[in-house]
Amino acid sequence: MTRTLLKTTALGTALLFAAGAAGAQNLTMSSWVPPTHFLHTDFFVPFAEQVAEVTEGRVTVTILPAPLGSPAQHWELARTGVADITWGNFTYEPERFVALWFAEFPNAGTDAEAQSVALWRTYEAHLADLEVFDGVEMLAAGLFGGGQLHHGSAQMVTPGDIAGQKFRMGGPIQERLLTELGAVPVAAPATRAYEMLESGVIDGSLHTMESVVNFRLEEALTHHTVFPEGLYDAAFFVVMNSARWDSIAPADQAAIEAIVGETLSAAWGRQFDAQNPAATAALAAAGHTITEASPELIAAVDTIYDAMVADWIVAAREAGVADPETVLAFYVETYGALTAE
Known about the structure:
single chain, globular, about 15% strand, TRAP_DctP_sf, D-Maltodextrin-Binding Protein, domain 2, 6-stranded mixed beta sheet
């Protein structure tokens, strides 16, 4: 009797251990910024630590030492399960993510936390059911607080200053902006900006203020034109493979849900809200010229914005967005309300 009880107890303990082991999940994350980048040190590493903390170690995240593909491949890496978690820029696949173009237009804002929360709420309220988002669990959406115009030798204050100048840019929205302002857009990743400036291939480049510093472009870009509500923006995602998400125990899913979504999106924005002013101050201290865009230049950009919105409404409807006007109005109103708080 005692031997039977001991055997039964031992079997039960073994089964419980096996169940615990089966429930443990180690998630792989592919990231394409170096481990010294602030997004790695101040955003992704703390996120991984939080996941382990809230699940009491049952779910962990391992950030891989090297990316599993190019930045533009990271949505697909998560959707197909090559990596469990990835992050990236919706701009890298513009034809796929037409629904989100509005977030990258001029005047999207310069408060990155408010922008990111507004984008998350807009996604949840109006876009989450679109087929383009199938296959992933959206963990966060974010913006970077307004991209600005930077030049290597002269101040770009009026449309006349910009005409004929060659600027590096990263996507179709930026390309249209530059073209309609009379500039010459040159497509290239931000990582190539320095060599292109040094070789004279470009005269200037589009960046956030922080990326001028974080990409070490201070010596090559010395004149900065600031648009109060941003010249353009970039929309980002943090996503997880849907099947991998479904494999996590419901209690751990609930624990993770409490730290992602709007919470993680707000944390994304706070990183850029800390970085952009610090970079601006550092550039000013180094003797750089930082000037606000002239009313004439802002008016020219506003005219381009109006045309962009009109064209996007048609394209978004074709991409399955039932009421694009409402989507844009929701984002604008939400951002305004958040910045007014």
